[in-house]
Design brief:
There is one protein chain. Helix 3 packs across helix 7, helix 4 crosses helix 5 and helix 9 packs across helix 10. The protein has a 4-stranded antiparallel β-sheet, sandwiched between helices. Strand 2 and strand 3 form a beta hairpin. By secondary structure, the chain is of the alpha+beta class. The chain has 10 helices and 4 strands; from the N terminus they run αααβαββααβαααα.
Length: about 240
């Protein structure tokens, strides 16, 4: 439980928000975007080299791959290419075969892509396991690949870039301390592990701040959301059943 003195200090820190000051996460994002755009040719070269070494699949192949329960291609990115329109779609998954199957057979992906497939246009799919690349993060690999293959609308089928902001960027050291204090206070509660998406995490944090009569500091809320997600992900890794 947070003490009264801790809550009082947190209230003071979160209430001291400079008006009009741009969050450091904004500059962090912009720097990353510039860096990734500058390196997209290098990434394209790496991924094209891997694609040459690996088989290319037609959409119909995924019915058999799924039926066989192929485990060779699990965590990674998949590149769907439309030969007729020269368009790419880049996606990520922890089970690429199942996810690509959903795109074509169940229409659980890009509606534009599925419409072009149903009209008879020719597609091929490349599966690139994360472990075969120079990347350690699936989020980073996907975002770099979207840039490398210029797959955002209108030049491709992707509607949004990859997840570039996956770690908390705090305004200052005090915000980091507050995040650790609150996280330590809530991380073993049943409700904490029910926070399965960003909307639930955001609403939970806002309700918690209101309950403790703390300021709704948006810079802190944004960072704390990512801190919760990061902790949940690490917890699942370390507590995965053997």
């Amino acid at each position: 439980m947070l003490t009264e003195s801790e809550i009082s200090w947190i209230r003071e820190v979160l209430g001291d928000e400079p008006f009009g000051e741009i969050s450091p996460s904004y500059f962090y994002r912009k720097d990353l975007e510039i860096e990734r755009t500058q390196n997209k040719r290098r990434v394209r070269k790496e991924l094209d080299s891997l694609r040459k070494e690996m088989p290319k699949y037609a959409p119909k192949d995924f019915y058999e791959l799924k039926k066989k329960g192929t485990s060779e291609y699990l965590v990674g990115i998949y590149l769907i290419y439309n030969y007729d329109r020269d368009l790419y779609y880049v996606g990520k998954s922890k089970n690429m075969v199942n996810r690509v199957y959903e795109h074509f057979m169940l229409n659980m992906g890009s509606p534009e892509l599925h419409e072009d497939y149903c009209s008879g246009e020719k597609f091929s799919i490349s599966l690139i396991p994360l472990a075969k690349t120079s990347f350690s993060s699936l989020d980073d690999l996907e975002d770099y690949a979207i840039r490398a293959y210029d797959s955002l609308l209108p030049n491709g089928y992707n509607k949004i870039p990859g997840n570039i902001m996956v770690k908390p960027i705090y305004r200052n050291d005090d915000h980091k301390i507050i995040s650790d204090l609150i996280l330590n206070d809530i991380k073993e509660t049943e409700e904490f592990f029910s926070l399965s998406n960003d909307k639930k995490r955001r609403n939970y944090i806002r309700d918690l701040l209101s309950e403790l009569n703390l300021p709704q500091n948006w810079s802190f809320i944004s960072s704390f959301m990512k801190a919760i997600k990061e902790y949940q992900k690490d917890y699942k890794k370390t507590n995965k059943p053997q």
